[in-house]
Amino acid sequence: MPEPAAVEAVANRLRLLADPTRLTILCALAQGETNPTCLAELAGVGLAAVSQHLSKLRLAGICRPRRAGQQVWYELVDAGVRDLVRQLLDPAGTVADSAAVAAAAAGEETRS
C-alpha cells in the first residue's frame, strides 16, 4: 500500500486536473505551445479566467510560460500529465481503464 502522503498527493493532482476548463487548456497544450488568448477562445472563457487556471498549472509545475516580445506562450512540460490527458481524451474515443489512469497519476507523483 502506498503511504497516505503519496495518496493525498495523487488526489490533489487529480483534483487540479479535474476542472473542465483546466482540462480543456491541457488538451490544447498537449497539442503544442499556445497563448492565453487562443486558450480562452478554445475553453470558451475569459482571458482572466484562463490566466488564473494557467497560474495554478504553472505553480504545480505542469506548464511553463515563454515570452516572445510582449506575447506569452505556454507549453505543457509534465510528460505524465500529457500522457494522462491523451489517455483520457483519446480522439478515437477509447478511454483508458481506471487502473492505467491511476498508475499514470501515481507514477507521475513519484517522479515529482
SSE inventory with pairings:
Blueprint: H1 4-17, H2 20-30, H3 36-43, H4 47-59, E1 63-68, E2 71-76, H5 79-88, H6 98-111
Antiparallel strand pairs: 1-2
Helix pairs in contact: 1-6, 2-3, 2-5, 3-4, 5-6
Description:
The structure is a single chain. With about 110 residues, the protein is mainly alpha-helical. It has a single domain (about 5-110), classed as Arc Repressor Mutant, subunit A (Orthogonal Bundle), CATH 1.10.10. Helices cover about 60% and strands about 10% of the residues. The chain contains six helices and two strands; from the N terminus they run H-H-H-H-E-E-H-H. The chain has helices at about 5-15, 20-30, 35-45, 45-60, 80-90, 100-110; strands at about 65-70, 70-75. The chain has a two-stranded antiparallel ribbon. A hairpin with a 2-residue loop joins strand 1 and strand 2. Residues about 95-100 have low confidence and may be disordered.
